[in-house]
Amino acid sequence: MRQKASVLAVVTLVGAMALPARAEMLDFATPQGTKSWPKLPTLTDWHQDEQVSLARGVNFLVPDGSDTPTAEVTISAEGVSRQTGPTEISALVERDKAASAGAAVSTLPAVRDKDGVPFQLYAFAPAGGNGRWQVVAYSEEGDYLLAFRLNATSKAAQDRAMPVFTGMIQKYAKEIPW
What we know:
This protein is of the alpha+beta class and 178 residues long. Helix content is 29%, strand content 36%.
């Protein structure tokens, strides 16, 4: 009996390890089709801009008291299905580099989420220091590639928001209870 229980426990453990981790995605039906994005932890003093989220297909956050067009900083979270998009993080990085022509790109230290999954961070600094400043955190969970973005109007605004951004990543988990 003890041997059967041990074999069953090993089979269960091996079966669970074979299942890919899956990012928890929120799905919304729109006239343009289903939009989905990663479920994020609640950020104190931030709120979701639902209109922008639905229009862009990303979870788009702005500080309380700000509106999207005038906000100094914003955060967005994108989940890209490996079934319909790139299959490797490097392809997302290259896509973002191409979209930020002229930006100086540097690698920042990785940040681990609540589950211990590393997010690799890249900073995109605009040529000449004028323009959009961005830090992007890339990771993967099962069928999804994840790209969390901090956008700022200046280096100073980016620096002030970095603790919120890295804290959000550290609180992020495959399954976030509400």
